Amino acid sequence: MHRPEMASRVRARTEPWDMLIVGGGATGVGVAVDAASRGYAVLLLEQHDFGKGTSSRSTKLVHGGVRYLEQGNISLVMEALKERGLLRQNAPHLVRDLAFVVPNYDWWEAPFYGLGLKVYNLLSGKYGFGASRILSREKTLELLPTLNTAGLRGGVVYYDGQFDDARLLINLVATAAAQGATLLNYAPVTGLTRDAEGFVDGVLARDLESGEALRCGARVVVNAAGPFCDAVRRMAEPDATPMIAPSQGIHLVFDRTFLPGDSAIMVPRTSDGRVLFAIPWHGHTLVGTTDTPIPTATLEPRPLADEIQFILDTAAEYLDRRPTRADVLSVFVGVRPLVKTGNGGNTAALSRDHTIHIDQSGLLTIAGGKWTTYRNMAEDCVNQAATLARLPDRPCLTRTLPVHGAHPDTAQLGPLAIYGSDAPAIQELMRKDPELAVRLHPALPYTGAEVVWATRVEMARTVEDVLARRTRALFLNARAALAMAPRVAELMARELGRDDAWRASQVAEFSEQAKGYLL
Ligand SMILES: Cc1cc2nc3c(=O)[nH]c(=O)nc-3n(C[C@H](O)[C@H](O)[C@H](O)COP(=O)(O)OP(=O)(O)OC[C@H]3O[C@@H](n4cnc5c(N)ncnc54)[C@H](O)[C@@H]3O)c2cc1C
Q1: Ligand 1 pocket by C-beta < 6 Å: which residues?
Q2: Which residue of 88, 266, 294, 316 is most buried, as measured by CB atoms within 10 A?
Q3: How far is the centre of ligand 1, averaged over its atoms, from the C-alpha of 297 (Å)?
Q4: Angle of the 26-37 helix axis to the 165-178 helix axis, nearest 10
Q5: Under a CB-based contact definition with an 8 Å cutoff, are residues 214 and 205 in contact?
């Protein structure tokens, strides 16, 4: 992954690409991995950084979705449970099993959730993560020592997967690149080109670093712009009927003392009838999420006061210590690219399945679905895109394709475990320059070596890329991230050959952005 090399490949290509993908989130990068591994010539353009959209802002669960089971959507649950198993197999360094406890305060909850979660486990078949079981009050408190004990009867435990979304995404970009794809961040698509018959045959884009205008031909253009995909569709058909009903979800992050064990809390029905999770994540406690319809998606969505209060109040019902605004270390917001199904107003009830739509212009849009099912979505999309573009038929290989970094046993890699097979190279950076082994902030484990690695090898271009996505500092502790910014800018400037003015502007830009993660 080397941006100047990627940019020069884009400039050098005179033939059309087999597949050109708009959008570098889970959906687009998944399509790039699939198409490149089938041997197609692939270009992916991302307007900002990889994962800047929804794909770095999820609840970090690799799951079948217990809620969809309750809604009777068995096929969606089964597909997601299978994908959960494949992802653990192909990215074992990133997906870990996590115990989720549904605390029971009413007599009917143990049999009801006990049975439901048994079915959930049965549906996973050979891809199971562990059998669910009913717990006594004592055992429940052993797993969740900070649970509110007033009226507590016991619990039901089941197992699902947990991951780091932005890290998986960067590893998938590396996987696609290793399979021969060209992927460029900071390259917004600004228009679509058409052939004599009016079919989309490429895109107009801009390289934001060089300022250069790009014109790239393609046999098929795949619109994977997530919550922004209607804007891309309107580039071809200005009055296209919108497909997406955007809905935002927020998460609050607290320190580990709120959930000190290794188990998560799953609240199956909040006061507004939804699911809420409290999850241990990177040594912190992540609580979310909400589902609030919004008029349009933006790249930096902001939490609403009601959403914050709702999460604080619901968490207070289940925890023995009531979390307050002062306890919030970071708040982050993601926008669901939910596909419209008629004119229903309640986004929580909208389909979580993915949709592939082909406009009359031949632009193929893939939207919806979830992180967990990105591989299956990509397989479906590439099958249809290859047919549309009349590309030679080639089988999908991603069911068994290891994700970059795959490592069978990361236990010995310590705090760098998340990097999987890349960890020794980062350790080597520290060995050569011990200054790089120094932590950037006492509250977080990140070191200078990770900044150098992200800049040198993972196409990080800004301080925000490093603090929000290559590491998760901004999402874990926004104040600590702010304090780290000057040192990160200094290390990046050295790597990228930038001057003091660049450093100052990067720190100023990041500080402005980080304000949105503070309460
Ligand atoms: C609050 C929340 C919690 C979630 N939790 C989970 C979970 O725990 N587990 C799970 O499986 N799923 C979860 N999901 C769903 C999952 O995160 C999304 O389905 C997935 O990330 C969507 O990916 P995407 O690539 O379609 O969209 P995005 O990640 O938004 O990617 C689209 C990309 O397109 C780019 N783009 C837009 N316009 C252009 C243009 N003109 N040119 C170039 N690029 C462009 C954007 O910058 C963006 O990076 C959650 C979603 C939300 C909102």
Answers
A1: 22-28, 45-48, 52-55, 57-61, 63, 188-189, 224-228, 232, 249, 289, 334-337, 369-372
A2: 266
A3: 11
A4: 30
A5: yes
What residues have CB less than 8 Å from 515, skipping those under 6 apart? none
Please give the Cα distance from 246 to 226 (Å, whole number): 10
154: left (phi over 0), alpha (psi -120 to 50) or beta: left
Residue 357: φ, ψ to 5°: -130, 135
Q: Cite the beta strand spans of 130-224 per DSSP E.
A: 133-135, 154-162, 182-184, 189-194, 200-206, 213-223
Instruction: Quote the pTM value.
Output: 0.96
The answer to whether 70 touches 127, Cβ cutoff 8 Å, is no
pLDDT tens readout for residues 450-494: 999 999 999 999 999 999 999 999 999 999 999 999 999 999 999
Answer yes or no: are the C-beta atoms of 405 and 419 closer than 8 Å. yes
Tell me how far the alpha carbon of residue 213 lies from the centroid of ligand 1, in angstroms.
26
CA–CA gap between residue 254 and residue 315 (Å, rounded): 11
Kindly give the distance from the C-alpha atom of residue 496 to the centroid of ligand 1, in angstroms, as a whole number: 28
